[in-house]
Design goal:
zinc ion binding; 172 residues; Carbonic_anhydrase_sf; globular; 5-stranded mixed β-sheet
Length: 172
């Protein structure tokens, strides 16, 4: 039996597919850029950032972390030809609300010590929270620019999306 979420997926996809006419788009993104942004449900990257289907790679994770997106960025550039990265974090991000110790305590309480071991083994004990939004954008940009996996020719800029207004502003 399908859950209500699955039923919604099926119904909405049926409607979408009935009018879908863009199945011939090329695999590489047409505008040759990648966006790293947060998975926050209040952000609609296509609408907010003017991204049409086929234009860009949109990489989403908690906090819009470039560290968490590194594998995707390397593939985006090396195999699919992107030449620019937009790092877009946002106001009211959940990653501003906790420290690693807080997340680890919740994991221990809800999932047990074996799960805590996996956090250490697979995430190096770091959920990548941050306390200052602009500083986090700058740190991600600096980290990307210093990575040996990202060519120096790749343009990198940093932005903050305001969930309260829908506006974006450049940080770097």
């Amino acid at each position: 039996m399908a859950t209500p979420v699955q039923q919604n997926l099926i119904a909405k996809n049926k409607s979408y597919a009935a009018n879908f006419r863009q199945g011939n788009l090329a695999l590489p993104p047409a505008k040759k850029y990648a966006v790293v942004t947060c998975m926050d449900a209040r952000i609609d990257p296509a609408a907010a950032f003017g991204i049409s289907l086929g234009d860009a790679h949109v990489i989403r994770n908690a906090g819009g972390s470039c560290r968490a997106a590194l594998r995707d960025l390397v593939l985006s550039q090396q195999l699919l030809g992107t030449t620019e990265i937009l790092v877009i974090k946002h106001t009211g991000c959940g990653m501003l609300t906790f420290k690693n110790e807080d997340a680890m305590a919740v994991v221990r309480k809800n999932l047990g010590n074996e799960a805590v071991w996996e956090v250490g083994a697979f995430l190096n004990g770091d959920f990548l929270p941050f306390g200052d939004l602009e500083k986090a954008v700058m740190e991600d940009i600096e980290w990307v620019r210093s990575s040996k996996l990202i060519p120096k020719s790749i343009g990198v800029s940093g932005w903050i999306y305001e969930v309260e207004t829908g506006r974006v502003r450049r940080v770097a």
